[in-house]
Design a protein that fits this description.
Elements lengths: L1 H7 L25 H9 L24 H15 L22 H35 L11 E9 L7 E4 L8 E9 L13 E8 L6 E7 L5 E6 L8 H4 L5 E5 L3 E6 L5 E6 L2 E2 L4 E3 L9 E7 L7 E6 L11 E3 L7 E8 L5 E7 L2 E5 H8 L14 H4 L10 E4 L5 E6 L13 H7 L4 E5 L3 E5 L6 E6 L7 E3 L8 E8 L2 E7 L6 E8 L8 E4 L5 E7 L20 E6 L6 E8 L2 E10 L4 E10 L7 E9 H6 L2 E4 L15 H9 L7
Antiparallel strand pairs: 1-33, 2-3, 3-4, 4-5, 6-7, 7-8, 8-9, 10-12, 11-12, 12-13, 13-14, 15-16, 16-17, 17-18, 19-20, 20-21, 21-22, 23-24, 24-25, 25-26, 27-28, 28-29, 29-30, 30-34, 31-32, 32-33
Helix pairs in contact: 1-2
Length: about 650
């Protein structure tokens, strides 16, 4: 009996005669126990079949593996042989139903089920992966911030409130615009006020746009009246590798010379005498076939007989092209231009005047300068509409504007154009030479002249003290005008519709005692933000018309967005005097920087220090002071007061792009 229990419970026991397994509980039993063994051997047939929970019987072979493992191996062998296992061990042949291991249909069903399970698992995983990748590539990431969102550099001395010439250009190839600026310093041995007039040192300095560090400095013998960059020095016949070796070129204009310098190092490339230069340089199409844009400037002739001369210079080496072309302009007034204009048919004209606005075909200037030489093919076109404006066939001048009010300024109606962004590259010329013009006259009038037929679109009366800035306040596609006027201690700022000449927005402030034009920056959404300097906002319902300026004068730089016309963002607050400003762009960061030149008082009687300050507009908006204007201000249709959360969220999400 002990032997039977040992076998049934799979305890270690004596070996059967067939396997030789040792069982200490049954070692003393005799062979007469075989009947009990037979009972155990027959027990599985009574319900505990092979491999039952009580273990194998004595008649079954036993070893180191269990009977369950042996059955699994048998089933696998049957599957490999393709033999069904639907028969029971008792030989009755009763089927065990579909889905058993050996059933081919059951096997296929199980495979299909496994494939469906795998597909149900992998399909959502693949869809989720694709969604993540699409979001990563299609949804724009928030642009990174500048490493130095604000910097300040002191360069030289400021005598009075004269604005130093400056220009923006990427001179080191890092993708960020750098600043080139003319600097005036007093020599160390000239601290006495009586000797200030003849003891100045002149130079041009290049500042890194990212950090404000001085990249190079070049000394000059004369003061700089104009600084322009972007003159092309590559040649069509050269390979791309050769073109990369040519540096960016900047042009310096002094009272008597034209000088081209390597913008990367400040090294002089060429310098030529130019007479009494009265204007900036204008880049004109290639006149000599050398692949380089040539230059045109306005000068006063040495004999002073003629009013004005137009002079052509080679962009390659500055050499004079032909001779100066004199124009006997009888009007007396401020010099207008010269400006290059390309009409819709591709004809080139030079706009110029003294209190008036006249146009002269560029081909005529070239023919007179070269004694009748045939002009290049690019100058051969004529615009029939413009040619009809000639007063006589013998005159080379085409009349654009004249009247009792002398012309003061003439600007192309292009968003972002300003006197400090007047470079010589082809893109700048293309942007500013195919537009309507804004004319400012002496009798407080502002007019827009259509370039197609030179007729006036609209005129308004406004006492301006600085040139307007151009940007998009509404969505009609026509740039609008930011204008400023001052009277009785009040600074009025207005935005005028460029298409119709009506006022879109206006507000009044304490006059900051500055003569500085505004700026515009185009957002990635298409509209512009408008920047201007002013004092504290004034209530439109005040009773007095004259306002006294407080001491000290606090000057504030405000930013206006058309989406919130009753809200201003204060970016800068200072007691320094702002002299001139320019806006640079960082395309990678989708940001822009407002670069301003300040005059900062110093101790003693000497002139103030010239300080260049740059602030990231996006970074400044994150910490700007929000100014809420009163609803009576003429703001384009604001019906409710936005919450502080809405305002902060909107301005922090702004991004900018090149105009």
């Amino acid at each position: 009996m002990a032997a039977a229990l040992s076998r049934a419970l799979k305890l270690p026991g004596k070996k059967g005669s067939d396997l030789g397994e040792y069982d200490p509980l049954t070692q003393a039993d005799s062979d007469d126990d075989s009947e009990e063994d037979d009972l155990v051997l027959n027990y599985p047939r009574n319900g505990l079949g092979r491999g039952g929970c009580l273990g194998p019987g004595a008649a079954e072979p036993r070893g180191s593996r269990t009977r369950l493992e042996e059955e699994e191996e048998e089933l696998e062998e049957e599957e490999e042989r393709g033999v069904g296992s639907g028969k029971r061990q008792d030989g009755t042949g009763a089927g065990v139903g579909p889905g058993q291991v050996g059933d081919p249909e059951g096997k296929k069903a199980r495979q299909r089920g496994a494939m469906r399970t795998t597909t149900a698992f992998l399909l959502p995983l693949v869809c989720a992966t694709l969604t993540v990748l699409l979001c990563a590539f299609l949804l724009p990431c928030r642009p990174g911030a500048l490493e130095h969102p604000q910097w300040e550099t002191q360069l030289g001395d400021v005598g009075g409130v004269k604005s130093p010439p400056m220009a923006l250009w990427d001179v080191d190839g890092d993708g960020m615009e750098d600043l080139l600026i003319a600097v005036t310093k007093l020599s160390n041995n000239s601290q006495q006020i009586s000797s200030l007039s003849n003891s100045k040192e002149y130079s041009v300095v290049a500042l890194d746009g990212a950090s404000g560090e001085v990249m190079w400095s070049r000394s000059l013998k004369e003061t700089v009246s104009s600084l322009q960059c972007g003159l092309r020095t590559t040649f069509p016949q050269k390979s791309a590798a050769q073109k990369e070796n040519f540096p960016p070129v900047c042009l310096l204009i002094t009272p008597s010379h034209l000088t081209a310098i390597n913008a990367s190092s400040g090294k002089k490339l060429w310098s030529v005498p130019a007479g009494e230069v009265q204007s900036r340089a204008v880049a004109v199409p290639d006149l000599q076939g050398d692949g380089v844009l040539d230059l045109l400037i306005a000068t006063l002739p040495a004999d002073q007989v003629s009013d004005l001369s137009l002079v052509l210079h080679s962009g390659m080496d500055g050499a004079l092209i032909g001779r100066p072309v004199n124009f006997n302009l009888t009007a007396d007034g401020k010099l207008i231009g010269p400006l290059l204009h390309e009409t819709v048919v591709g004809a080139y004209y030079i706009l110029i005047g003294l209190g008036t606005v006249e146009a002269v075909p560029l081909r005529d200037v070239y023919k007179k300068a070269t004694n009748g030489s045939a002009p290049p093919l690019s100058l051969g076109l004529k615009d029939p509409i413009w040619e009809k404006q000639r007063r006589s066939n013998r005159s080379s001048l085409i009349h654009i504007y004249s009247g009792p009010d002398h012309a003061e300024y003439l600007f192309p109606l292009v968003a972002g154009v300003s006197k400090n962004r007047n470079n010589l590259d082809a893109q700048s010329n293309r942007n500013s030479s195919r537009s309507n013009w804004v004319l400012m006259s002496t009798n407080s009038k502002v007019s827009v002249i259509r370039e197609r037929d030179t007729h006036t679109s609209w005129t308004i009366n406004s006492t301006l003290h600085s040139p307007p800035a151009f940007g998009h306040f509404n969505d009609d596609g026509v740039p609008d005008l930011l204008i400023q006027q001052s009277a009785s201690g009040v600074r009025k700022v207005q935005i005028i519709d460029g298409a119709r000449g009506v006022c879109l927005w206006e507000a009044e402030f304490v006059c900051p005692l500055l003569v500085l034009e505004g700026s515009t920056i185009q957002t990635t959404a298409g509209q512009s933000v408008f920047l201007f300097w002013a004092g504290d906002p004034l209530s439109p319902s005040r009773n007095t018309t004259k306002v006294s300026t407080p001491e000290p004068i606090v000057r504030r730089l405000f930013l206006l967005h058309p989406a919130y016309p009753t809200v201003l963002q204060q970016l800068i607050s200072t007691t320094d005097t702002a002299l001139t400003a320019i806006v640079s762009y960082q395309d990678i960061q989708k940001d822009s920087s407002y670069v301003v030149v300040l005059s900062r008082p110093v101790s003693g009687l000497g002139p103030g220090a010239m300080v260049v300050k740059s602030v990231s507009v996006r970074a400044s908006l994150a910490t700007a002071l929000t100014i809420q204007l009163e609803q009576d201000n003429k703001a384009a249709g604001s019906s409710h007061t936005p919450s502080a959360f809405q305002i902060n969220k909107f301005f922090k999400q702004l991004s900018f792009r090149q105009q």
